[in-house]
Amino acid sequence: MQFLGDSLKSLRDFPGDARQDAGRQLDKVQRGKQADDFKPMPSIGKGVEEIRIWDDAGTFRVIYTARLTDAVYVLHAFQKKTQATSKRDIDIAKVRFAQLMRGEK
Question: What is the CATH number of the domain that holds 76?
Fold first, then answer.
C-alpha cells in the first residue's frame, strides 16, 4: 500500500468508524478483492476507483488504483461535502495519478 501526497494524513483525519471502514476496504483491495461500495473513476485515469464510505459523521471517499503490479496506490482521501465530487478533489487525484504514471512516487 502506497499513499501519495497527504492521502495518509487525510485518511487518519477521518472519524474513527469511517477510518476503520476505509482500512477494511483498502485491505480487501490489497488482497485482490473489490471494496464493498466503489465506483470506477475514468475521469481521473484508467483503473482508478473510488471507495465510498457512509458514516454518521458524513460521507468520505478514498480514490485509489490497484492496477499496478507492485502496490495499491491511494491517490486521495477526503470528506465529501456536496452531491458531486468537487473539481479540486478530482484535480488532486488526477495530478497524483499522472505523477504515478510518469514514475514519480
Answer: 3.30.2310
Give yes or no for residue 25 having a pLDDT over 90: yes
Distance of CA 54 to the CA centre of its chain: 14
pLDDT tens track for 68-89:
667 899 999 999 988 888 899 9
The answer to whether the beta carbons of residues 47 and 38 sit under 8 Å apart is no
Locate 83 and state its grid cell.
452531491
Provide the number of structural domains found in the chain: 1
What is the gyration radius of the CA atoms in the chain, in angstroms? 13
Q: Can you tell me which residue has the cell 458524513? A: 58
Q: Measured in whole angstroms, how far is the alpha carbon of residue 77 from the centre of its chain?
A: 5
**What is the residue range of 6's domain?**
2-101
How far are the Cα atoms of 11, 56, 63, 75 from residue 47, in angstroms, in the given order? 21, 29, 11, 12
Q: What is the DSSP string of 25-50?
A: HHHHHHTTPPPSSEEE-TTT-TTEEE
Helix ranges, the chain (H): 7-12, 16-30, 87-101
